[in-house]
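quick q for whoever's on today - can somebody do inverse folding on this one?? i tried earlier but teh output was garbage lol. C-alpha cells:
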C-alpha cells in the first residue's frame, strides 16, 4: 500500500485478483499467479499478450483456475482495456 501497485510483480497483481491459491499444501495465490503466467507463455508467447485475448475456457484449463477466478481475471483485463481506450477521450 505504501508504494502502490506499480512496484508489484505481474504474478503478485494476479494473486490479488485470485485471492487464494490452490488450497492447503499446494500453490499460494502468488504461486498460482506465477503458474498461470508460465502456462500462458507456452510456445514462446508473451503471457500478458495472451492474457489480453485469453478466453474463459483456456484459463479454466489451468489447474487451480475455476469459473470464479477466470471471471475475475477476465473482468480485470476488460476493465484495463476500457481504461486504456478511455484515455484518449478526455
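ok took a stab at it. sequence:
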Amino acid at each position: 500500500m505504501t508504494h502502490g501497485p506499480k512496484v508489484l510483480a505481474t504474478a503478485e497483481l494476479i494473486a490479488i485478483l485470485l485471492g487464494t491459491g490452490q488450497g492447503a499444501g499446494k500453490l499460494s495465490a502468488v504461486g498460482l499467479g506465477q503458474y498461470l503466467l508460465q502456462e500462458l507463455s507456452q510456445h514462446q508467447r508473451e503471457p500478458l499478450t495472451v492474457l489480453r485475448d485469453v478466453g474463459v475456457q483456456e484459463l479454466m484449463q489451468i489447474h487451480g483456475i475455476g469459473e470464479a477466478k477466470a471471471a475475475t481475471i477476465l473482468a480485470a483485463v476488460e476493465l484495463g482495456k476500457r481504461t486504456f481506450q478511455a484515455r484518449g477521450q478526455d
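fwiw The mean pLDDT is 91. also The longest helix spans residues 67-86. so keep that in mind when u check it
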